[in-house]
Amino acid sequence: MGEVNLMIIFDEKKYAINLLNKTIQRDYIKWEDLLILAKYFRSLDKSEKQIRIELINFCINSNPNFNEVIFDKSISSAISKSEKQHLKLAHPVTVNKIEIETIRSLQNYNYEKILFVMLVISRHNKTSYNSNYYINYNLATILPYAKVYVSKSERDYIKHYLYEKKMIEAISPNTHYYMNGRDNFKLLYANDNSGSYVSVPDPIESVFFYPVFCEICGKEIGKKYHQRHEMCEDCYLNKRKDVFLFNAYR
Question: Which residue of 81, 128, 161, 241 has the fewest C-beta atoms within 10 A of its own C-beta?
């Protein structure tokens, strides 16, 4: 089964409002959308009868071929699940120094960004009843958030590399994630035994909060996105001076 590029929804309230405001015709209606809408309507203190009416209206507006009888089971399931699940809202996420040091041990900037983004996503979505950190999206979905763009074969290599480095651990596949084209693995580098080092106010922009370190002296530097190098100003100037002197005496 090929990889499916799924969108990660960090703020279900915004997503629900966007769904309702856009009259996009869809060939199919995702059950996940019905669940998010059900949770949104429930947050507005609507009764289950009102939620059902709202969901049916959404389906009618979204798909002219909508059949209420066929979708009855999906709608009922979404309403039932919405009673047990809260609407997920975007919130700040912190990453600690031990985690940053572990991520930096790879000494590969693209791989580091991937691990950082994976940790932010996992921590943002983490439930309080589970002490472990998991990621339930494939790399094709995660990489754009890390600003890393590679081929499928390179994605497979990255995944294997992270397994070999014991950064992630494959979890036994289950039907839900397989059918939705998702990977399911545990993050082994997550560590809750340290204070906050990096604060990420918006998980969508998480990669821009990954601290950048000088590739020569290791000093933390502020990221300047027009730069093609990862050096502090002193090391960059010294390197330019060395290059100038080398060329001058050739």
Answer: 128
Does residue 55 sit in the same domain as residue 45?
A: yes
Do 197 and 153 sit in the same domain of this protein? yes
Q: Which domain holds residue 190?
A: 93-209
Phi then psi for 229, rounded to 5 degrees?
-120, 165
- DSSP for 174-235 reads -HHHHHTT---EEESS---SS-EEEEES-GGGGGGGS-EE-TTT--EE---TT-SS---HHH
User: Position of tokens 């995702």?
Assistant: 30
Provide the H-helix boundaries in the chain: 12-21, 31-43, 48-62, 68-82, 97-104, 109-125, 139-146, 152-164, 175-179, 233-248
Within 8 A by CB and 6+ apart from 158, the residues are: 111, 114, 139, 150
- Residues 77, 150, single domain; the answer is no
State which of 25, 52, 82 marks the end of a domain. Answer: 82
What pTM was estimated for this model as a whole? 0.79
Residue (of 58, 92, 88, 87) closest to 75 by Cα position: 58
How many angstroms separate the CA atoms of 28 and 18, rounded? Answer: 17
Q: Quick: pLDDT tens for 141-189.
A: 999 999 999 999 999 999 999 999 999 998 765 444 444 557 888 999 9
